[in-house]
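Quick one, tokens below. Sequence please?
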């Protein structure tokens, strides 16, 4: 049975460390281990063979740092090093007579990406693309992205792998004991945002310290889960780096994690063939344990995830409609004005920000990409990309670091065909408007039919219902009073019969009528009772926000009323400060 057919069904074993084994064999600090693929290929082959004899089923090429940035100072090209590395691993397989897959190993680039560093997303993508193309040409069987501490860098690497090969892609990130990467990324954001064939953790700590973090991955990810831990933290003895954990100590937490569903196991720094041999003796070819995965509908930024199953406020103010100052800012390229609006929305309690910059006389695609980069540089909340242009949506999703919401598609066949592929590719959630070529249906049944068609079409593209949000469209009570009732009926039908999430732009209901806030709040309460998940409102409206918080309590979403109590206390404090 091929590796891809066994993945997630039988335990599969990676090899162990390469760098620390080379150090034990005389590699000096500061030397470039990738050079040895050419200068000491026989020794590299022997290390690979030792892992094969120990029971490894995947050999990792000695290419952890084989990117153009890290190799600027050596005499060999990326092409030469990666080709030699794949050949060395392949030779080990042939000479040992033991079947195994060869994984092209890609580690971090060595420079931080924007906004924390100066490396752009496109530059990172191009560096990884070069490695992937050479690895594919050399005959690698899969691509293993490892020891990444930045979800944005992981995204660049994964896209480079998926867009330039048909090989399986594994990705393991390195986390600190607090459950965060060096750049602040979270486990849940990692799970939600990548779209690979296997996901997990490696390096940083020993398996016991990583155990609770791997358990979290096992709880929330449907993918095969990978662990390649260090042999503990390194210590210095007699001027040498030493790892203290023995193979037996290393294996104990792995055995516990196997019982919880761990599927792919190997070693990182400080491990060697003895570690892999012990794992193989106990777990090789065993069936992966079944596990229950907690179902969530997540959208996320690198550090913050939002479960759409609850009630979450989408801030509506990043939108030029009817706002002269906002339009001027867009025309003048004044993103600071827009960023100020965004910060105000988050400070007021918005969980997600809708980002709409649609104006006929601007380069929407260029400005949207710039704005997305700026927003994710200063804010933690997930973003909702609001555009009717599929090219703008595609570009925004590509540069967004996380899992976004696309606002929106509708029931028109052409719109669905043009937009849904990008939604699937980037793992986004998508809002479907209940309108089509014939406009907005008058009845709830008509809008439900459009919603059902959108859900079914999304399924054809591999988009599951937990990624779908339906907007039954708020009509103005001044012109279409009966239509308002139909909106609420349709919302309930969609919620009950399709099992998807729902959203509405609340303030549309009161257009053209006096005392608009009264109508808005009343309509919001009615919609929340029918199952509204994502009210799109102005979060600076304290009374609207209070209604949302209260509804979460009364619908048993905010258990213990903790969020409600906190919000009310903060509101009272702000009010007191303003009056003092």
């Amino acid at each position: 049975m091929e590796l891809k057919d066994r993945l997630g069904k039988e335990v599969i074993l990676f090899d162990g460390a390469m760098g620390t084994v080379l150090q034990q064999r005389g590699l000096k600090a500061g030397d470039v281990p990738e050079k040895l693929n050419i200068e000491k290929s026989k020794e590299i082959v022997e290390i690979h063979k030792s892992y094969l004899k120990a029971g490894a089923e995947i050999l990792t090429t000695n290419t952890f740092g084989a990117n153009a940035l890290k190799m600027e100072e050596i005499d060999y090209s990326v092409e030469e090093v990666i080709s030699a590395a794949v050949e060395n691993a392949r030779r080990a397989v042939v000479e040992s007579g033991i079947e195994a897959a060869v994984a092209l190993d890609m580690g971090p680039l060595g420079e931080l990406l924007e906004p924390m560093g100066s490396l752009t997303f496109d530059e990172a993508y191009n560096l990884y693309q070069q490695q992937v193309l050479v690895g594919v040409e050399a005959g690698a069987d899969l691509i293993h992205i490892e020891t990444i501490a930045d979800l944005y860098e992981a995204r660049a690497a994964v896209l480079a792998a998926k867009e330039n090969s048909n090989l399986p892609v594994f990705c393991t990130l390195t986390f600190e004991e607090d459950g965060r990467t060096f750049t602040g990324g979270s486990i849940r954001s990692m799970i939600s945002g990548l779209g690979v064939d296997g996901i997990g953790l490696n390096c940083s700590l020993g398996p016991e310290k990583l155990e609770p973090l791997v358990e979290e991955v096992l709880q929330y990810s449907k993918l095969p889960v990978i662990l390649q831990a260090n042999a503990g933290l390194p210590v210095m003895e007699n001027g040498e780096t030493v790892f203290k954990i023995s193979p037996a100590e290393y294996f104990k937490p792995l055995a516990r994690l196997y019982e919880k569903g761990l599927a792919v196991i190997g070693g990182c720094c400080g491990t060697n063939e003895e570690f892999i041999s012990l794992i193989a003796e106990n777990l090789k070819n065993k069936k992966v344990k079944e596990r229950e995965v907690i179902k969530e509908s997540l959208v996320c930024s690198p550090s913050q995830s939002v479960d759409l199953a609850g009630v979450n406020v989408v801030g509506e103010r990043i939108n030029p409609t009817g706002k002269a100052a906002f339009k001027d800012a867009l025309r003048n390229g004044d993103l600071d004005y827009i960023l100020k609006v965004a910060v105000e929305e988050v400070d007021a309690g918005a969980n997600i920000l809708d980002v709409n910059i649609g104006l006929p006389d601007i380069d929407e695609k260029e400005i949207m990409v710039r704005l997305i980069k700026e927003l994710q540089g200063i804010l933690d909340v997930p973003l909702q990309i609001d555009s009717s242009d599929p090219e703008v949506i595609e570009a925004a999703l590509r540069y967004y670091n996380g899992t976004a919401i696309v606002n929106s598609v509708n029931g028109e066949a052409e719109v669905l065909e043009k937009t849904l592929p990008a939604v699937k590719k980037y793992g986004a959630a998508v809002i479907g408007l209940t309108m089509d070529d014939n406009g907005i249906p008058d009845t709830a049944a008509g809008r439900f039919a459009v919603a059902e068609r959108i859900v079914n079409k999304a399924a054809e593209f591999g988009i599951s219902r937990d990624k779908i949000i339906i907007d039954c469209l708020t009509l103005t009570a001044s012109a279409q009073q009966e239509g308002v009732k139909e909106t609420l009926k349709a919302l309930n039908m969609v919620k009950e019969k399709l099992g998807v999430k729902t959203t509405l732009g609340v303030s549309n209901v009161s257009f053209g009528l006096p005392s608009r806030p009264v109508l808005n709040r009343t309509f919001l309460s009615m919609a929340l009772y029918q199952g509204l998940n994502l009210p799109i409102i102005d979060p600076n409206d304290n009374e609207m926000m209070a209604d949302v918080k209260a509804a979460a309590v009364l619908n048993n979403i905010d258990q213990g009323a903790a969020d409600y109590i906190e919000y009310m206390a903060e509101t009272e404090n702000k009010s007191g400060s303003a009056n003092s």
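The mean pLDDT is 94. Residues 78-96 form the longest helix (19 residues).
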